[in-house]
Amino acid sequence: MRIYLDNSATTRLDDDALAEMMPYFTEKFGNPSSLHAYGREALKAVDEARAEIASLIGAKASEIYFTSGGSESDNWALKGAIYASKAKHKHIVTTAIEHPAIIETCEYLEKKDGVSVSYVPVGKDGRVTPEAVIKAVTPDTTIVSVMFANNEMGAIQPIKEIGAFCREEGILFHTDAVQAMDSQAVDVNELNVDMLSMSAHKFHGPKGIGVLYIRSGVRIDRLIAGGHQERRGRAGTTDTPLIVGMAAALRKAVAHRDEVNARVAKLRDGFVARVLKEIPYVYLNGGMEHRLPNNANFSFGFIEGESILINLDLNGIAVSSGSACSSGSLEPSHVILALGVPEELAHSSIRFSLGRDTTEEEMEYTFKVLKESVEKLRSISPLFNMEKGTGSYV
User: Fold this and answer.
1) What is the location of CATH 3.90.1150.10 in the chain?
2) pLDDT digits (tens, 9 = 90+) for 1-32
3) Strands in the chain per DSSP E
4) What's residue 392's pLDDT?
5) Between β-strands 91-95 and 116-120, what pairing exists: parallel, antiparallel or unpaired?
6) Could you say which of 18, 33, 325, 342 is catalytic?
7) 310: burial class by Cβ within 10 Å (0-12, 13-18, 19+)?
8) CA-CA distance, 7 to 36, in Å (whole number)?
9) Contact yes or no for 208/239 (Cβ under 8 A)
10) d(CA 226, CA 246)
11) What does each C-alpha distance from 288 to 1, 64, 159, 274, 377 come to in angstroms?
12) Pairing of strands 64-67, 210-214
């Protein structure tokens, strides 16, 4: 049995989306920038996809800019806002739990351009408060960037409230909504956002295509020069098949959102309850309220997370020990550390991210293998054999 529980890292391409994409790899292969019939045919498909994506998030087609994915969209939002600003002193407000695409872009701007950055802390539930974000804002604040939902422990942030403050104060507000698009209602007007990032492969679309929504009237510098594509906002040959696939996948995700959420949340809740009840020295990272319905992130006392991951993988179960974008790092997750989790426990964190195809049988098998793996690894752990029964580990 092979079980995929790493849907926060990527999802399987939807069959219907693939079918809609295929003609644009073969007979409808024209470049949308070309003026001949082949080009016009491709451009029509791109325009229709752009309009559909816009309608699904309450935007205008002219506010949708295609990118290579969420990381590029995040980079463009922050760098574009900073480089377009005429202010002498520039300041970014973000959170301590952002995706590396935000964190590392902020660090780059700090080092290269002297931009100051405030990293707002979160509570044990993984959420920032609007008040904490507002307190971090200064007269020099150029942009506020707060993710819609965290990629590691699933905490959903109070985007609407933060956006309302930013709108009132005339401060640009960006949200990385990459993890939220398939399970949360996303309306850019209700959320009060000026910019929003998304990535198709997180909601059963193709890899390599994303969107940056930029509200009409917002001016940011381009990130990639060299062509007139995306209304001269982002150079590069327009990838018609991927754009068509993204629209098809988002359409399906929105249409089936409520039923998928209900089914997946029930499976996740049952799994969480059983893990916490039947496996000792296990801790749920983040709160259960305001959490993505498919996410469960645990720390397992006395053992390394990677050891659990390897044992599960050997039994056909795919999970993650952190963000897919930093999986090669030996450092503990900055997200889990931000919750106040001790470093030794942060090293033992495992993320289970269910998907729309996950079954009850798969979760039953996963629990069985997980429990056996933890017992096996602890039996050979000197730390566990010294400390077990004391309750002093955390």
Assistant:
1) 3-9+257-381
2) 899 999 999 999 999 999 999 999 999 999 99
3) 3-4, 64-67, 91-95, 116-120, 141-145, 172-176, 195-199, 210-214, 282-284, 295-300, 317-318, 349-353
4) 42
5) parallel
6) 325
7) middle
8) 40
9) yes
10) 24
11) 29, 33, 18, 14, 27
12) antiparallel
- The tokens for 77 are 């939002």
10, exposed or middle or buried, with CB in 10 Å at 0-12, 13-18, 19+? middle
Q: Which of 198, 128, 210, 134 is nearest to 168 (CA)?
A: 134
- State pLDDT tens for residues 350-377: 999 999 999 999 999 999 999 999 999 9
Fold of the domain spanning 3-9+257-381? Aspartate Aminotransferase, domain 1 (3.90.1150)
348: tokens are 């033992």
For 15-255, CATH number? 3.40.640.10
Secondary structure (DSSP) of 17-79: HHHHHGGGTTTT---TT--SHHHHHHHHHHHHHHHHHHHHTT--GGGEEEESSHHHHHHHHHH
Token pair, residue 239, equals: 């990838």
Which whole number is the average pLDDT over 20-49? 97
Enter the DSSP assignment of 320: B
**Could you tell me if 126 and 340 are in contact, meaning their C-beta atoms sit under 8 angstroms apart?**
no
Q: What is the pLDDT of residue 384?
A: 79
Closest CA to 197 of 220, 214, 184, 172: 214
**Residue 325 among the catalytic residues:** yes
Say if strands 141-145 and 172-176 run parallel, antiparallel, or are unpaired: parallel
pTM of the model: 0.94
Distances (CA, A) of 271 to 44, 108, 336: 46, 40, 20
Cα gap 219→80, rounded to integer Å: 8
Q: Which residues on adjacent β-strands are paired with residue 64? A: 213
- Which residue spans of the chain are classified as CATH 3.40.640.10? 15-255
Angle, alpha carbons 329-334-335 (nearest 5°) = 125
